[in-house]
Amino acid sequence: LVMGLLEQQQANKTSNLSSDQATIGNIDLGTPGADGDVINSGDTVVEDAFLVVSALTTKLESEFHRFLAAFAPYVCAALCNPSEPNLCTIAVGVAGDLCRALGEHPDMINPTTSEQGEQTGYVPIFMHCMIEALKGPILKIKPVIL
Fold first, then answer.
1. Considering only CA atoms, which of 27, 28, 25 is closest in space to residue 117?
2. pLDDT tens digits for 28-65?
């Protein structure tokens, strides 16, 4: 249900846009919108979906790894979008919940490269996005990340 809501939200924002793809490592962040955003918090559906996933992560703990590949691109997209501080703040919390729940699961921490030369593991990607947000001019998100 949550993934369906997120996919519908992203489809609504990207249906009539260019085919340029935003990626970080092997994570496809989707097609940027006309204003450069992949997802934004203009609609609270995305924020609410993130909060639901945070609760599921807390409840399922290590079993959440089954859903990680489907959900992590949304977290990456939100972390890489500090111009939406509310959504980015929630994404920082969700990334923390994922790291706590999944710990040293290989999908989370594997900083190696795949056969295609793409980086695998979500923690390095989460960290990259948060470091880039810290370098940016938006002050509201910096205390949350730190």
1. 25
2. 444 433 344 445 545 678 888 899 999 999 998 888 88
Q: Are 122 and 72 in contact (CB under 8 A)?
A: yes
Burial of 80 (0-12, 13-18, 19+ CB in 10 A): buried
In whole angstroms, give the CA distance from residue 107 to residue 129. 17
Residue pair 24/63 in contact by the 8 Å Cβ criterion: no
CA-closest candidate to residue 87, choices 72, 100, 97, 76: 76
pLDDT of res. 45: 83
* Cβ atoms 129, 22 nearer than 8 A: no
Q: CA quadruple 31, 134, 40, 37: dihedral positive or negative?
A: negative
**Total-model pTM:** 0.68
* Residue 55: predicted pLDDT: 92
